């Protein structure tokens, strides 16, 4: 599954636009006032919808860049069912009001105090609105991005998801937002919606000016009154802690004047009239003292209403205080009512900077001792005997070993070698993932340190479920539509195949649908498509599949050949040919002949083929996710026997080809293993033993090139044309594919050595069934070989001599 560049660019662009809209909130006039409220900007549905849309786009971008992590796509699809309706609701309501009723959503622009000519006066009220780019980023970009992603880029949702999951998630989201909005309103005193005017929760306390006139004007909440009181306390504290010399230099008269100014700054007086300052409040209306002061004493948030004149004076006072920060930097100067607030703020700012500096020093402090200690050999042996006591400790140790090996020069402990860290890491991998140490080391050697961990981790995750469309009976588009109607969630595998479909979830058994029983598709791993695509059989050709059961590759070739020509589907295990025949009949393959020969008997029994497919018996190290028993039951002897058998089979496959074929002359060798012994070593052996065999390009669009050298061994340079496939890279079973072109022989020579290579063992899934003239270093193997021959002859119906007591003891 490859990266999707175009969707990735679109998702990244959407994220950038929405991020610009959110960052631009700091430029609006009401930003500071909103931030001081409970919930800040996050109390508004617009901002919550914007954040949900941004997270959805971020997950979509991760899914485009890492398509093999299906969990990311699943989370994104669930979030999309919530963020899409929220964004549509926000955009619909906002733009409807903007176009039809702007006065309900936009605050009016304050009228200019300068006189204007009647001809130039505006005919309609003017409204303040945010810049258009910010407006579009906040109220239009999220919905447009999500709608495009839902209908164009995202695969279809199942009926179950649309009918049950989507309404449930939307309901939970609505309840959560209603609870959050009610909480914010209870703290702030109003249901705010910028820039819509607040909806009042509590009764206003009207403030009357001293001249007896009451006008609607600037509204100050009780929360602001508390801030004023807090500032008063902080300022008095600052006065107490400031330089004592300034106070000592004052005489009693100057000190009395200063205290009078301080009192005038923070307490409102009925005798001040219209000269009230930023901290003063006018008298309450007569008769409202008992009613309106009681809520203030109870702590409920109320809103105080000043006259227009008071509002102007309040703004002037605040501007003077803000300007005093820059004008009163000299802390040693005389304290006045004008610089008291500035000095208090400066002290608070210094305290915050000191706290931030202490946190930074704590974060960047050097560790006093090493966090990781490499166990000794004795400790490792004890752990092997007792088993893993702490899984988290093993995980931590593996992570530290990987870190050290990636930067050994700087991170390695003194006196420790690279081999010690490597041995410890392999031992931890074997114990943590359940491998024997031999296989863990063999697989570890194939990759870099970090990639090895990814490979072992990928083997713990099942591969995607895939099906292959049988083009003899259905088209992929029609099959996909039929399965979607049955509740199957699927999509095409990729551009490299036009018959594969990946199944994500299904409400019906995927192996028991009417379409499956009718032969419209075959349950088949995506990696099994690769050898057939590389072989590319043509119509009317004569093809041999040397190890064909259960028939996935055979029926695939039959479909490519359009039921023409002739395919010999061979399998050495006669019991497995039953499933092979069943699949051939179910899929309607009429050009297939099923046979059961030892693969080494070709071309003696049959020959002259245009193309040969050899999917050789192997150790299965590429399909550990399907068969976990491989982790523990494979030994060095198994790899030796399998490699010997594979070398024999590939030579027989080469000899079975008709080199004079006008359309063919090709062989594809493949295994579901990732070890070099079963792949590059076998192919290199065939190139040396059969000079008329040449490696050619496989024609596969992806895959890792094969090794040309490995741990001191050098192979033919043409081995770079072969292809490797890994679970952690391609999200499919580990696989190996090599393609040969067979040319006519220049000289026909058969030596005794080549003849002896035709003899050996035949290994099937049931185990070792036949041993021939094969010698080993261990003399005890001769007894096992003799017993194997005796059992094989008995199985074929021959009379065999009964074993004596010595033979029974040796075999037992």
Structure description:
Helix 3 (45-65) runs antiparallel to helix 4, helix 12 (308-327) crosses helix 13 and helix 17 crosses helix 18. The strands form 6 sheets. Strands 10, 11, 12, 13, 14, 15, 16, 19 and 20 form a 9-stranded mixed beta sheet that branches. A 4-stranded antiparallel beta sheet has the order 7-8-6-9, with helices on one face. Strands 3-5-4 form a 3-stranded mixed beta sheet. Helix content is 48%, strand content 11%. The longest helix is centred in the first third of the chain and has 31 residues, at 70-100. The protein has 31 helices and 22 strands. The chain starts with a helix and ends with a helix. It has 812 residues and is α+β, with helices and mostly antiparallel strands. The protein is globular, with a radius of gyration of 41 Å. The protein has 6 domains: 5-200, no CATH class; 205-362, no CATH class; 377-458, no CATH class; 464-524, Alpha-Beta Plaits (2-Layer Sandwich); 526-763, Vaccinia Virus protein VP39 (Rossmann fold), CATH 3.40.50.150; 781-811, no CATH class.
